[in-house]
């Protein structure tokens, strides 16, 4: 269960989030919508602990305990996983190495052959070939491929809380359908917060709650 | 210290060289060669460029030690080396060897089995002292031909006091299908400070030679000055892979040169991870039409280290091709320099050369520089040179932290990734150790 209580956040000396509260239990997908610049990504970055976002009031709690004093890598090790809008490219580091490093960090120490076949299966479900396992991560992949690769990584890392920041952007209809299936699978055991402009995508995900954000505040939820 | 060893008194005078040659019962020509080299060494000044070598005191070193048994024990090996072995999970037997505590290692059995296979094909693979006794004509024909004693001060030093090193001869048309690993050979005898390696690949033959290891290797001796000579006869193919990770008290000053005859291919893969200062520029003389050279130089310079490395190619014949790729990482105030030379003589028509050097810097104090020299006297030749410098991006670090990696682990992954062209060329057991090693280095550099 992820809980946010009356959260107020500042970045670069400016108040960007005010009085934000939500609670997402495992097994549910909640949606976050709103115009560009309204604070959706800022909320995601505050949850993962980006150092440029300073928490001025309120709390972020994971399974009943505040995570405000935890560093980003410690939050990740609790099972909090973030799929950002844009991802950096890595030279010489393939998806398989990244998955292994991330799994090792969480103490999972998976068998490399098992990890490889799970990743290959996840890529296949998303319509990507196994070639992406060893290629430099996000090196010369298209926008849509990057989203799928990240989703495949999420699928094998089995996060307990997943933030999706416009994962559907850049995907075609078939890609969206496949992505929704993979996310639904992850959400069986995880809490999910999906940021998206697409109502169709959110409907397909079967979201339980929607929050609408404007100028750093939730103005509507249902 | 045990008594089963021969040591020629510390310091370097003419008499030292005579004693070394006498101790080995060498033929007169080698003794003359050594003495001429000693005179050259005496007459040459220290290089005024490259790494700072002012800490070298030639009179403080032992130039010849023959030990029948192990010469040190564990208590002499620094704690840092102990803990690195621990962290890398290196087996006890191997640790003892790497630390110089044991001269023996179980791979000797493997070596003997392989030796029979090689012998059946006519391949000679032994240490250079043995080769001088058992194959004197072959050694005499080529020794000092690619790297004459007068090449530089340290080539002269090696020529005067050399001991050990590998000798390889591959007969005409023979392909050595498994790489010859110095690892096996060296384990049979302790590794020397002034190794002399000579590889002769006869016409149409193929051979790959691997030396060194990714695990840190402790050496008491602070000066290592080797010479490697390769002759690749027409249509032959030679690949020479080195990974050095000497302890951080060592000056590693090595001269490596290959002659590539018509249509021959020479590849140098050179990874420099350890030492206090390294100066090493594997070179290829492309002497025959259509000869090719490929040089991959990889360097990691951490705190207090200067890696001055690169490559040199000399296009001396038409249709010759070469490629030099240099990748370096400097971290925690370490310095990595690329030093390269490309020369195309008039008449080397249609020679083609590509040089690419990339430097990655970690932290504010890291330093990287390039010293390329390009001289082209042939109008139909094409020479390309690209250089770039990168730093780890904030965005990459954020991403990796959000995947649960601590700063050191994230850096280690990025650095190992950047240096992947080396890991990819290494046998699997080296590559796994290499990645773990980079993580440990990053941990040290951040602390």
Report on the structure:
The complex is a heterodimer of chains A (222) and B (447). The model of chain A has no long low-confidence stretch (mean pLDDT 93). Chain A has a 6-stranded mixed beta sheet with strand order 6-7-8-3-9-10, sandwiched between helices. In chain A, 35% of the residues lie in helices and 28% in strands. Chain A has helices spanning 40-48, 72-77, 95-105, 112-125, 143-157, 173-187, 199-205; strands at residues 2-11, 14-24, 29-33, 53-62, 65-66, 80-83, 161-165, 191-195, 209-214, 217-221. In chain A, a hairpin with a 2-residue loop joins strand 4 and strand 5 (65-66). Chain B has 447 residues and is of the alpha/beta class. Chain B is globular, with a radius of gyration of 21 Å.
Structural descriptors:
heterodimer; A: alpha/beta; 6-stranded mixed beta sheet; 4-stranded antiparallel beta sheet; 7 helices; 28% strand; B: 447 residues; alpha/beta
Portion of residues in helices of chain A? Answer: 25-40%
Indicate the mean pLDDT of chain A.
Answer: 93
- Structure summary, number of beta strands of chain A: 10
Q: How many domains make up the coordinates of chain B?
A: 2
Termini Cα gap of chain B: 36 Å
Structural class of chain B: alpha/beta
Strand order of the largest sheet of chain A: 6-7-8-3-9-10
Biggest beta-sheet profile of chain A: 6 strands, mixed
In percent terms, what proportion of residues of chain B is strand? 25-35%
Distance between the termini of chain A: 19 Å
User: In terms of per-residue confidence, which ranges of chain B show pLDDT below 50 for 5 or more consecutive residues?
Assistant: 102-109, 184-191
Shape of chain A: globular
Number of strands of chain B: 21
So how many helices of chain B?
13
